[in-house]
Write the structure tokens for this entry.
Amino acid sequence: MDDVTSERRFARAMTGFLAYTVGVIVFGAYVRATLSGDGCGDHWPTCHGSLVPLRASSKTWIEFSHRATSGLAWIAAAVFAWWARRVFPRRHSARRGASWVLILMTTEAMIGAAIVLLKMVAQNESIARGYWISAHLLNTFGLLAAQTYTIARALSSPGLPSRRSNAPDAVSLATVCVGAGLLLVSVSGAIAALGDTLFPVDSLERGLAQDLSTQSHIFIRLRIAHPLIAMVVSVVSVVFGGWMNLALLDRRGRYLARVFVACVVVQVAVGVLNLTLLAPIWLQMIHLLIADMVWISFVLLSAHARLRLHVAFGPGFGSGSVRGRPSHR
């Protein structure tokens, strides 16, 4: 088997692993929304002191199932880190990316364990829980980014740079800003979802009144910030995607830009529906699933753009010295 075939097989397998990871993440939202986070008590890694609960409630089985699927994900991350070292040469980006997947999968497990041991689950309304779920969310998105980046670099052509890219400054700045905006939306969304779980309402009007009341819990008052932040970041993201669609002359780049814009538009529509229907559990899970798709498509687009624009333009592009034209072909 030649090197190219091995690399593509690795990329396909990592794509399947990415899909599995997204499934585990969405299942985690179900654990939170059903208040099943304390299903195994404050025990970790055991469940009520046992490795496998034999006589257990539905909450226990939900939490235990999430732990089991998460444990399998960690084992898979370790296998991929080993596999990448076998397939890719030293200093290859895909090899480093697989190592970061293992590191972030480990910190993901550590944060999850801390949340359980500190009882930041179920009906816990402490402000500290907001910080913990925010940290959990940021680590999760870092994990998805590492997996996606590894796939992108595993599939990149051998002739393209595998290390640091000299993409145009404007593109780098825009990418950082949009990425930071998407993370901010995601964190505010996690807080809003927690507020919906802990303080459900029976009407949109009552929910809005609670959001605007200074007497409400901080999670309720922060809930109104999410749709406002989401609308601003969505507009910026669509503009960024449109810009990339024009800047990238290759077919794959334009396709990735359009997929990113489509995911953002769908996410806005689902968000409006989620707000209108008062955040039912099934729609919260769909909302999170599409948020993961938005982030993955953004990372794919960004990785592709940095590679292609490095090849198409000189390092001085964006500084005004070449006036927006390719310096070499």
User: Anything to note?
Assistant: Residues 1-159 form one domain. The radius of gyration is 21 Å. The chain has ten helices and no strands.
